[in-house]
Design brief:
18 helices, 38% helix, four-stranded antiparallel sheet, five-stranded parallel sheet, single chain, disordered N terminus
């Protein structure tokens, strides 16, 4: 995203399953993926935690907890714990947005949800997005000014919202509810949380599912642009190899190159109906807006399918579809991520481990995103306070815990090789790669069934994965009525 680096996101149960649950009072509630989304029955409560676990005198924060009870009246004792991406996403909203993918697991197990500190309704660490920042209009000094303003608006000391602190909250919740162990399911940044929880609390971890894997060895930042470029190159090449797509959009790679060159010179003025309000307006659409729109479209097969069409339209002077996609992306990110928590994670766990001398800036500049994200991260982190991280945080997890790693070979941000890096010391692991899929596999094809079988058996090697061969990949849109039948 322009100027603000967005890398890149989830209730009490039967007494037999939680014998110690009386210590944390939960009551009937409904959770959802956000305003306008349907509610899901759950049991909710508030977990009190020290802001700084090393100094209880520093005060407490309130963390939102939710349990979606298992369908079985005598469930297994260990719940599934979805961990949201971002960083900065709500685990409760993440689960509610994808709940059908978890129903096969919920037949036998509770779904335990904790909005990570700083996200959702857990001591939210957020500050308002400035449209000028999102639109990429700020220079470095203005970005610094915005960052200072954000820090001044945060309700708590941002240092205590790192992953190393957050995993202590989840362990405290496990103890509070009396669960003997947890089955962790992390997506994107949530895979970092899952790996670190298992490193810190191996005896509290039964199984781990890592979806869109962030390996501990790689600090996020410099490779985002190059991986995004690899993904869009593959998408356009796939269109060129598809007879129908190639017939409708010949030389699609040249179309993309031409709009990149045009927008690098100057933004275009686009008249469109705001996708959120419906109001007609004229907006400036430039290189930064193009980068944000394409990157977010490349995340999922359903949106990948429309990329050649909107690129071709823009090459023929109709930028409205791409401009609308940018507005949707900017709005969704502003609504979904807690910026303060996001910056603490990035500036404590990633930026300090980036060696500027090893970065190929020429390669970054050659991408459609450019060096903008990395440079923005540097500016923000130059004044953002760093929080505590555990020793060995950047080393691969060494464990015999059963682990299932999931990747899509069209993922624009966490490619399959990232999962291979994370798995180098995982001694009881299996890596599944979905063909043609983007970022996040939990809802793709038969993956919900595979996940449920893995959690039930805790045996990655014994999984039958033949159903993956028939996973549906959305065909390319040839016009705005949709793909050909």
């Amino acid at each position: 995203m322009p100027r603000i680096h967005v890398f890149s996101a989830l209730l009490l149960i039967a007494a037999a399953a939680s014998p110690a649950a009386v210590a944390l009072e939960l009551s009937d509630c409904r959770i959802s993926a956000g305003p306008g989304y349907p509610g899901i029955s759950a049991r909710c409560g508030t977990l009190l935690r020290p802001l700084n676990p090393a100094d209880p005198a520093a005060g407490q924060i309130e963390l939102r907890v939710a349990v979606v009870p298992a369908l079985d009246l005598e469930p297994e004792p260990d719940p599934l714990v979805p961990l949201a991406g971002g960083p900065g996403g709500s685990a409760i909203q993440f689960y509610a947005g994808y709940y059908p993918a978890f129903e096969a697991v919920r037949r036998e197990r509770d779904i335990l949800l904790l909005d990570q500190r700083g996200t959702g309704s857990s001591a939210t660490m957020d500050c308002p997005f400035d449209d000028a920042v999102v639109d990429g209009q700020y220079n470095d000094e203005q970005t610094l000014e915005f960052t200072r303003s954000c820090l001044e608006q945060l309700p708590y000391d941002p240092r205590f919202f790192t992953t190393s602190v957050a995993v202590t909250d989840l362990e405290a919740l496990r103890q509070e509810l009396g669960y003997p162990a947890l089955n962790l399911l992390g997506t994107s940044y949530g895979t970092r949380v899952a790996q670190h929880f298992a490193r810190r609390y191996p005896d509290s971890t039964r199984t781990i599912i890592l979806d869109g894997v962030v390996p501990p060895q790689i600090p996020l930042g410099p490779e985002i642009a190059t991986e995004a470029q690899r993904a869009i190159d593959d998408i356009l090449a796939r269109c060129a190899e598809d007879p129908d797509c190639n017939e409708h959009f010949p030389e699609i790679d040249m179309d993309f190159a031409s709009i990149r060159a045009q927008l690098r010179q100057a933004p275009v003025q686009v008249e469109l109906s705001d996708p959120m309000t419906g109001r007609r307006e004229t907006v400036a659409f430039g290189h930064n807006e193009l980068a944000a729109a394409i990157r977010l479209l490349a995340y999922q097969p359903q949106s990948i399918a429309i990329i050649p069409l909107v690129v071709h339209e823009a090459a023929n002077d109709n930028f409205a579809p791409l401009a609308a996609q940018f507005q949707l992306a900017a709005s969704s990110i502003a609504d979904a991520l807690s910026l303060g928590m996001h910056n603490t994670v990035m500036c404590s766990e990633d930026a300090p481990f980036i060696d500027r001398d090893t970065i190929d800036f020429a390669a970054l500049d050659a991408t459609y995103i450019g060096a903008l994200q990395f440079e923005a991260l540097e500016v923000i982190c130059s004044i953002w306070p760093r929080g505590p991280i555990d020793e060995g945080f950047t080393k691969p997890l060494v464990t015999d815990i059963p682990v299932l790693l999931l990747s899509g070979n069209a993922d624009p941000i966490t490619p399959p090789r990232y999962a291979d890096l994370a798995a180098v010391e995982l001694r009881n692991a299996r890596h599944l790669i979905n063909d043609g899929q983007g970022h996040g596999q939990i809802a793709a094809g038969c993956m919900p069934k595979i996940i449920a079988r893995f959690v039930s058996s805790a045996d990655p090697g014994g999984l039958d994965t033949d159903c993956m061969d028939s996973a549906f990949v959305m065909p390319f849109f040839l016009d705005f009525s949709g793909p050909m039948p």
